UniProtKB/TrEMBL annotation:
InterPro entries: FAD/NAD-bd_sf (IPR036188), FAD/NAD-binding_dom (IPR023753), FAD/NAD-linked_Rdtase_dimer_sf (IPR016156), Mn/Fe_SOD_N_sf (IPR036324), Pyr_nuc-diS_OxRdtase (IPR001100), Pyr_nucl-diS_OxRdtase_dimer (IPR004099). Residues 354-455 form the Pyridine nucleotide-disulphide oxidoreductase dimerisation domain. NCBIfam families: PRK06292.1-1. Belongs to the class-I pyridine nucleotide-disulfide oxidoreductase family. Residues 7-328 form the FAD/NAD(P)-binding domain. This is Dihydrolipoyl dehydrogenase. The keyword Flavoprotein applies. Its cofactor is FAD. Keywords: FAD, Flavoprotein. Signal peptide: none annotated.
Length: 464
């Protein structure tokens, strides 16, 4: 076994790990980046990018089908499933290749291939070939899709985001377990591509929304997009011919009813637990909770009482790309500082910003709706908004939340292209703007952004 000594060991060459490695090298640390394979990042290979490619194809089909409403006749719309999937994979492969190209400038000796497992608080074994001693380490191991128990033993009939982008043809029907961001985005894309889709979720919300008005709007909108079963849990699954037979039970008061049905394939979109098990964390001195996750400081990313830092999906705090990238940078820099005997930094956190690329899109800024916080609420409805109506996309609404003193704290929204509005609100919240200061900004006419002006106006009226 080869023995290597370094300052900083980074486990996982995903978005967080690559950012951490670069930050540690920039600080002058001898940093080693370890990847078990295949690499290329979850975002590019099986996450953000292939999902958005599939969504774009689905949107093209939807726009063509909806053109008639504008008096534009497109003719019959046909979906060539294998062609859709080939384009998605071809561009996806380009994105993955560009991640690898981006690593070319890193010194070859600063990278190791193999699965890393802790042997002790300052020692890792990589595969069966290398023992790496370090002064500080960054855990950037990401997360993996969970598969609920009723779907175990159904083999390839059950898809996850690790496999769904590899299928050669679109299935005739698809049951999706989970109405979070993954489930919602892929369910709608598949439905628009002609797949018969049913979505099951034991919860009663969609895409991370908590605001009751917007949740009600979302339920109505997505019930029209596919067969939606909220408050319903899949209890059993059995192989039936080439497909799967599922039975589900609905809780009392749910929109859904209990039932059963056959599906060609099932997509498990029931969450992504962090990859913290089976890597010897119990040998590091970190305080682990019942799921095996270490206690850590959300600003410095240091795991309490250790020389370990945890960034990206691995800490399950904010499992989204821009947070993985920033957390990686902070963790890598802090690991290098600790290794050099300096103190760690605790930068302010960014305001939380999360989105779902469904149609209409969903976005949550800050903590979103909080029933107990005593926030004031201002809203706007896209159903009667001029630009949304012109686009034939008049659905949903937005809610802004402010402290009684007027400081804006967050928002939830579901509506056309709210990704842009959500950024504006996130910047306003992060800059500490109050309602009056945010409203004293230009809102061009006619734009979707005018919905913000309406909601801010409501907040000001309520203020007296
Ligand atoms: C379908 C889907 C769509 C998404 N869409 C979006 C989106 O639109 N926008 C957005 O912001 N976010 C999106 N996300 C979330 C985003 O992809 C993740 O938050 C982000 O990729 C996490 O990056 P990471 O660096 O933490 O993990 P990863 O990129 O997963 O990197 C972790 C790496 O660690 C390696 N590893 C694990 N254990 C070990 C070990 N013991 N030894 C060595 N290596 C190891 C893994 O092989 C992997 O390469 C999406 C996710 C999914 C699944
Ligand atoms: N647009 C984006 O930015 C985007 C897109 C996809 C994923 N992501 C990120 O990836 C993370 C993981 O997304 P996700 O949607 O997989 O997880 P999630 O944890 O956000 O949602 C999982 C959903 O599955 C449901 N669920 C749990 N157990 C279930 C079961 N047995 N049967 C049916 N449903 C069940 C939960 O109630 C929940 O609604 C997200 O938190 C998000 O940060 C982001």
């Amino acid at each position: 076994m080869r023995e290597i000594v370094c300052d900083v060991a980074i486990i996982g060459a995903g978005t967080a790990g690559i950012a951490a490695h670069r930050a540690a090298l920039k600080e002058g640390a001898r940093s080693v980046l370890i990847e078990q394979g295949p690499g290329g990042t979850t975002c590019a290979r099986v996450g953000c990018m292939p999902s958005k490619l599939l969504i774009s194809a689905a949107e093209a089909a939807h726009v063509a089908r909806s053109a008639e409403g504008f008096g534009v006749r497109v003719g019959g719309v046909e979906i060539d499933g294998p062609a859709v999937l080939r384009r998605m994979r071809s561009l996806r492969d380009d994105f993955v290749a560009s991640v690898f190209e981006g690593l070319d400038d890193l010194p070859a000796e600063s990278r190791l291939t193999g699965r890393a497992v802790f042997e002790g608080p300052d020692c890792l074994r990589v595969g069966d070939h290398t023992r790496l001693r370090f002064k500080a380490a960054v855990l950037a191991t990401g997360s993996s899709p969970s598969v609920p128990e009723p779907l175990h033993d159904l083999g390839e009939r059950v898809l996850t985001t690790d496999t769904v982008f590899e299928i050669e043809a679109l299935p005739e029907s698809l049951a999706v377990l989970g109405a979070g961001p993954v489930g919602l985005e892929l369910a709608q894309a598949m439905a628009r591509l002609g797949v018969r889709v049913s979505v099951f979720d034991p919860g009663d919300s969609l895409g991370g929304l908590k605001d009751p008005d917007l949740t009600a709007a979302a339920r109505e909108i997505f019930s029209g997009a596919f067969d939606l079963h909220l408050g319903a849990e899949v209890e059993s699954g059995a192989a039936e011919g080439d497909g799967v037979h599922l039975t589900w039970s609905a809780k009392e008061g749910a929109d859904s009813t209990s039932g059963s049905g056959r599906f060609a394939r099932v997509l498990s979109a029931a969450g992504r637990p962090p990859n913290v098990r089976g890597i010897g964390l119990e040998r590091t001195g970190a305080q682990l909770d019942e799921r095996g996750s270490p206690a850590f400081d959300a600003r410095s990313l240091q795991c309490e009482g250790t020389a370990l830092f945890i960034a990206g999906d691995a800490n399950a705090d904010r499992p989204i790309l821009h947070e993985a990238s920033r957390q990686g940078k902070i963790a890598g820099r802090n690991a290098a500082r600790l290794a050099a005997g300096a103190g760690v930094e605790r930068p302010e956190r960014w305001v939380m910003l999360a989105m779902v690329f469904s149609d209409p899109q969903i976005a949550v800024v800050g903590g979103g709706f909080d029933e107990d916080a005593g926030h004031r609420v201002g809203g706007a409805d896209f159903c009667d908004q001029g630009r949304a109506r012109a686009m034939d996309r008049a659905q949903g609404g937005l809610r802004l939340y402010a402290e009684p003193g007027g400081r804006l704290v967050g928002a939830e929204m579901i509506g056309p292209e709210v990704e842009h509005l959500a950024h504006l609100v996130a910047y306003a919240v992060q800059d500490g703007l109050d309602v009056a200061a945010f409203r004293d900004r230009p809102f061009y006419h006619p734009t979707l952004e005018e919905a913000l002006d309406t909601a801010l106006g409501q907040l000001m009226d309520r203020d007296g």
